[in-house]
Records
---
Amino acid sequence: MSFAGKIEPSLGTAPDCSFVIPFFNEHESLQILYREIVENCEALGNTFELVFVDDGSTDAGTEVVRRLAQADPRVSLLRFRRNFGKSAALSAGFGAAQGDVVFSMDADLQDNPSEIGNFLAALDLGADVVSGWKQVRNDPVDKTLPSKLFNGAVNKAFGLKLNDHNCGFKAYRRETLAELNLYGELHRFVPALLHARGFRIAQIPVEHRARRFGKSKFGAKRLVKGALDLLTVWLTTRYGARPLHLFGGTGLVASVLGGGILTYLSVLWALGMGPIGDRPLLLFGMLLVLAGGQLIGVGLLGELILARTIGEKDKYAIAEKSGAVADRELERRIAAASTLD
């Protein structure tokens, strides 16, 4: 299926493209963004929908989107009772989106909708996810420098070379979203999370426009949260299906080292080379053995919990089914549907 030009309609009434737009106190920009997206999508000839997610705004943003939805059935609104964060907003928007391609965009007008066609063209080349790269950023140095450090750390941890993980302008094939479980601050790691699931990630340079309204919500707290979330994502993607390899491996090293120390001290005691009870090395060796045993126990416990909560099919992602396997699955689905009828 080609995304860059006119797309054949999907089954049912699903649009070609969905735009998920979280916003928080950005009422000045919402109508302008709506108009720009509509103009660009209509020029491309694609059907589309806009899903605005109000992340607990206290300004007039909700009313702006309600008026847009009343005038245009392609617009919908999801409103949180309070501010839950961008990850929660994206997760809710992705769950509501129906398009074959789902875009995420920030509502501050710094993302330029004229880039939509370039994203679709990149998907045509075989990518599953296309991430924007703000080559020229209209942000102060206290925002760009931490971003560079963050991008370098994420690339190093996951072996994924992207220049701008933080860019909110992204395009996804619909099937990739089923692999996402966003919470906390994990929206910054979406390409890394999907890369770990085997999807093809690409990036394209995009125009980053200067902020027209309001001010950035970036703060120093996000640096700390980002570092902690990086550790979380690294652990869950690399060791989520094999916790014993992490805890057990570390525990085994500690136990072997501690056992070696205790053996050495035992030999000294047996040879009558003085008392060992008051030597700090004895306490250190005992601590290593105890800590190693506990870590191995934690790893085994993790494996037991994993075995009860996750099936083998959930540990990997199947990209394609064809032949007899696909035919049998289709028959099962038809039989299930007929039973419900």
Note: Residues 243-331 form one domain.
---
Amino acid sequence: MNSPSHDPQANASSPTLTAAMVTASYAPDFERCQLLCETVDRHVTGMGHHYILVEHRDVALFRQLETSNRSVIDERDLLPKWLHAFDDPLSLFRRRIWLSSKTMPLRGWHVQQLRRIAIAGHAGEDILVFCDSDVVFLKPFDCAAFRQGNKVRLFRRDDALLAGGHDTHLAWSRNAARALGIASPATSPHDYISTLIAWRRQSVLDMCAHIEATHGRHWIEVIGADRRFSECMLYGRFVDEVIGGRGHFHGGQEFCRVHWTGQPLSDAQFAAFVADMMPGQVAIGMQSFIGTDLAQIRRLADA
């Protein structure tokens, strides 16, 4: 992935930064992604396009969601040809696995992260707004919230990893340092992971070029050498520690309230979950693997 030698946004008199939304999805989440698209069209402004990133075999299914400002992108147009998807016999062919001689075996959630990075080489907009397919917008939202002049908002939960219980996040942070060539500190105290966040497209290109220059290998080879990685940790540490925050400002407010783990919510619990949304939160995310009834979510979205 090649990046220009200059930052086209460095001049304060540059035109307003453009934005696009990016959603990585797969067939089991199709109906959730369909609901996301409906609520994006109903509530979201300030973006020019919506990219949905899927595996090759899911392209035909997701084409149903395409409009004049929504495109379905085949991962074959984003990822190197040496990374191949197969039905995994170890899961009795229920799950997919991506294999190559250059990376560890990768699962779908790993490859979704790679697609989110790789879309920077395909999209033309300045700001990439990432939104999972199990998110539903309940209130109006303007993507201008990710922009201050010529700077893009970097989500950062300051010092969140200093408390105990974040072993997985610290492993992701440590591997981000390895990929980016950051000798010290081995881990960052900050958490950069959330949904409904934004990246500067040019900075993503610069990050990939930096990884390749540091290691002399394709950026996916470097990242995929260890399956404990997070694209958000990579990007956050690159912006803060490699380019010194250039072109960005920090924000810790979460625009989406997410039910990450646990059991499906009852109607009463669901109502309480929505009622407890913080000021400024405009969407909810109900992790699809929890099994929340989609009809329950749709009733709320259509209310």
Note: The chain has a mean pLDDT of 92.
